[in-house]
Amino acid sequence: MQTKPSVLVARAVFPEILHKLEQHFTVDSNQDDILFSAEELARRLQGKVGVFTTGSERISASLLAQCPELRICANMAVGYNNFDLPAMTSAGVVATNTPDVLTETTADFGFALLMATARRMAESEHFLRAGLWTRWSYDMFAGAEVHGSILGIIGMGRIGQGIARRGALGFGMKVLYCNRKPLDAATEAACQARHVSKTELLQTADHVMLVLPYSAEAHHTIGAAELALMKPTATLVNIARGGIVDDAALAAALRNRTIAAAGLDVFEGEPAVHPDLLTVPNVVLTPHIASATMPTRMAMAGLAADNLIGFLVHGKALTPLNAPAP
Hints:
Blueprint (H helix, E strand, L loop, with lengths): L5 E4 L5 H8 L3 E3 L9 H7 L5 E4 L7 H6 L5 E4 L9 H6 L3 E3 L6 H16 L2 H9 L20 E5 L3 H14 L2 E5 L6 H7 L1 E3 L2 H7 L2 E4 L13 H6 L5 E4 L8 H9 L5 E4 L18 E3 L8 H21 L12
Parallel strand pairs: 1-2, 1-3, 3-4, 4-5, 6-7, 6-9, 7-8, 9-10, 10-11, 11-12
Helix pairs in contact: 5-7
């Protein structure tokens, strides 16, 4: 009997996904959901040809050098800043992600976070829970208007386009966007969006939404200088990646009321959160859950598994990020 290839599933995942993988592979799973150190990850990858990863597992040149049998890393995420893609390509290791399956769910959450931020939902809930609500007043937790306001989106990929459609079609918002290159005319028309410079977007928008992928170039896309360009009544929402915003500068801007409020689903150095963000009231904080519906998370896990099966069994990954030489 031919021995099945061996793969590692680096974090806990749906039992149905493990069962699917076990039809094709010898699976080393981590249903205890231990966060592996770099050393432990390298140890667990010995003899493995594939690994099912999440954003928690850093695939570096150093790790690849220790795992010569590894051929594919399948990320259960659309983002892949945990991958050193050039090093993987040089090492002949295929990288994959899970695009498309989380677009609408994440766009829904982005808009929900915008609404919660603009309308001061978390701040007012804390007030109510603390027993401080004793009477109505005309300006109690009066927030920013959403309907008919100006939405600025930085990063206009699939998720950004989904947010633009929700804003323009559902809330009558004027949509501006900043991207590395403008969308084609048909897509712009479908989103009812106009391409502008980052400076114009920051100066003009009532609500700024960050949906760009993380890269070295995108590090601190929003820092103190950018926050100073925004309206004092404006809100900032980040559902992209930690590191795109300078969290220390944002906390200072919120405390000083340089901007009105922020909503954050991602953080620099997460799961750690900058302590200053925990002490300002005008910020909504969520623990990286923008894609967290059960159907979407199942679809993400299923696509990551299908990438392992597609490449290691059938010779072709479904959603490759690179094309290493055979």
